[in-house]
Each structure stands twice: as structure tokens, then as C-alpha cells.
Amino acid sequence: MDLALPAAVTIRNLSRRVLPGLMLPSRILPDWFSSEVPERSEDSGAARTFAHAIRTSKVPEVLFGFWVIKIAATTLGEVGGDALSMSLNLGYAMSTAIFFVLFAAAVTAQIRARKFYPFLYWAVIVATTLTGTTMADFADRSLGIGYTGGSLILFGLVIAVLVVWRFTLGSVSVNVITDPKAEAFYWATILFSNTLGTALGDWVADSGPGYEGGALIFAGGIAIVALVYFFTKSSRTVLFWTAFILTRPLGATLGDLLTKPLVDGGLNLSRYTSSAAIAAFMIACILLFPQRAGEHPGAKE
């Protein structure tokens, strides 16, 4: 009997009581968000197929380090985006165009890659946060539609991508990403969700709580997602994307807290120095935390 599947099941059981997304799903239910991944089976062929899919996945295994690096990436995106659009005074439109070109180049390399490369994957994540920062600011401020209008439009774009993804490929699979089309939808969803998160972060912070209060609100939201994970059987895919989106406004408020003027409630640190420090922290985390191809949460337990 093939030992690959029992070993995977053992790892899933050991990770059962960690933060949302750390647990590896032991089964995939046929709901709207599900993907066709073989269930536990004694069939060695199915086990080998499943193990091969995990090894060739283009997304990382979601463990504690994933969330640490993701929050750092979103903070870097906020600070770096503001550095280009505000400190260098290039404006939101020009900065968005520059960052989108960088995103397009990075995501093309990622999709063409034959396996998971940690630094390439996180480079694309950072590119989405940089683009999302200036894109959200352009929608909210330059277009004059405000935070409410910008957030609603961006939320509609996220839903639209998920709907097109569903009807094009038959499922919104985030468990194991190996197909180029699925990966393209995956990155489009991340781009618009990071943009939405930026708009939400600015909206909440500027509505009264300030940057510290906003960071606490979104950190609390992530904590609620963790409680839902621990004490309910809600869809792991929904919880994953909820936590994923909430890390973006958390990073946005943390970035603003670091660099905004003292009179606005910030610490008035240099955007360039802060960007370099956060980037160095990210690199250290990528080297420190295990980085291997694996599953994103996608089952309802």
C-alpha cells in the first residue's frame, strides 16, 4: 500500500488545531467552491495522483509563516505604493501603470514556471499589493467616487472574477493550483481582493478610528475568522479568502501608521526606509519559515 496518502492524512490531523488555513483539508465536499481532489482511498493510483498534485502545486502550503509573510507583504505594498505616488509625486494613475507592468511581468513568469518558487510567488504577491494600493487610491480619490463607491466597485470586481472562474473551469479551486487558467484566475482574484482591502483600510481609518484603531479592528476581524474556524464547520475556502482579504486592510493601516505625519496619527517614518526594512523582514521570513508547494484550504470540515 502506498504510504504517501496516510502520511498526508497524519500531517492534516497534526495541523487540525492551528490558525485558519493551516489545516490541510482531509476531504473535499462538492460545494460551490470545491475542487475535484481525490478523497482518502486505498487505491494506490489515486494516492499517487493526489501526492503528485501536491508536489506540483504552484501555491505554497498555508502554515503560520504564510500569514506572517502575507501581512508583511501588504504593509510593504501600502508603504511602497505611497512612496511612488506621493513621495515621488508621480500620482496614482502613473504609479498604477508602473506597478501593473511589474505585476504583469511577475505573474507571467509565475504562471510559466513549472513548479513553485517561493521568492517568485511572494514577488507576485507584493506586486499585487503595490498595484492594489495605487489602484484603490486612484478609484477613491482621483475618480472622486469616495471610499464607499470605490469599495463597492472593487467588491463587485472580486465577485465577477470568482463567477467567471466558476463558469469557465467548473469550480473555484484553491486547493491545488496546477492549471495555468486556474492560476490566472487565482492571481486576478488576489489582485482585486488586495485592491479592495486597501480601500477598506483607508475607509475605516479615515472614518474615525485612526490607523491604530483600524489595525485593531482588522486584527479583531482575523481573530473572529479564527474563532469561526475553531468552533464551526464553515467552508475552509470562504474562511481562507476572508482572512486573506482582511490581511490587506490590516497591512494598509499598519503601513499608514508607520509613515503618516504625526498630526495625522502616524509615526512619520520615511517611506523609503520603512519599505527597505519591511522587504528585509519578508526575505528573512521566506528563508526562515518552511516554503514548499502544498494546499490552500478548500474543504468544509
Q: What features would you describe in this structure?
A:
There is one protein chain. By secondary structure, the protein is mostly helical. It has 2 domains: 4-54, no CATH class; 58-288, no CATH class. The chain has 10 helices and no strands. It has helices at residues 4-14, 44-55, 64-87, 91-112, 118-142, 146-169, 180-206, 210-231, 236-259, 271-288. Helix 5 (118-142) packs across helix 6 (146-169). The two termini are 26 Å apart. The model is unreliable at 1-41 (pLDDT under 50).
Summarize the structure.
The chain has helices at residues 4-14, 44-55, 64-87, 91-112, 118-142, 146-169, 180-206, 210-231, 236-259, 271-288. By secondary structure, the chain is mostly helical. Helix 3 (64-87) crosses helix 9, helix 5 (118-142) crosses helix 6 and helix 6 (146-169) packs antiparallel against helix 7.
Write the layout of secondary structure elements.
Layout: H1 4-14, H2 44-55, H3 64-87, H4 91-112, H5 118-142, H6 146-169, H7 180-206, H8 210-231, H9 236-259, H10 271-288
Work out the helicity level.
Answer: 55-70%
Mean pLDDT: 82
Estimated radius of gyration: 19 Å
Structural class: mainly alpha
Query: How big a fraction of the residues is strand?
Result: under 5%
Could you name the ranges where pLDDT drops below 50 across 5 or more consecutive residues?
1-41
What about the largest sheet? none
Q: How many H/I helical runs?
A: 10
Could you give the distance between the termini?
A: 26 Å
Q: Got a strand count?
A: 0
Summed up, the domain count is 2
Backbone shape: globular
Order of helices and strands: HHHHHHHHHH
